[in-house]
Amino acid sequence: MKITNLKKFLTILVVFLLNCQLFNFAYAFSDAKRFEFKTDWRGATIHYDAMPLEARQTLELILKGGPFRHRRDGTVFHNRERILPDNPRGFYREYTVTTPGATNRGSRRIIVGGKNMIFYYTSDHYRSFAKIVR
Fold it and tell me: Is 78 a catalytic residue?
């Protein structure tokens, strides 16, 4: 490996590690640590009819098995915020709810839990959840 390539590699590595440390520092002081660990659901609920049209459409797609627009739809939701009931890794899956006018995935999601398909809706990117009542 040439010296210039090695310098570039080391510079990229140092920048990457610094960004990782900044992320950890920011997380330590974020709202995520204020959420209390819960073993059962005592949070808010939202009725299916009260959800935005896009959320109802996403829920219907989930029940049909797709097709989904975003490649991250159906991936494991890790419940790092510990707002939802504690369950084994892989219990929860997340799906994007389209946000009109957004140029990215937006902040709205539906989280599905387990084989019984317990549904939760978040409009604020995991800061709060409401269990969907149908």
Answer: no
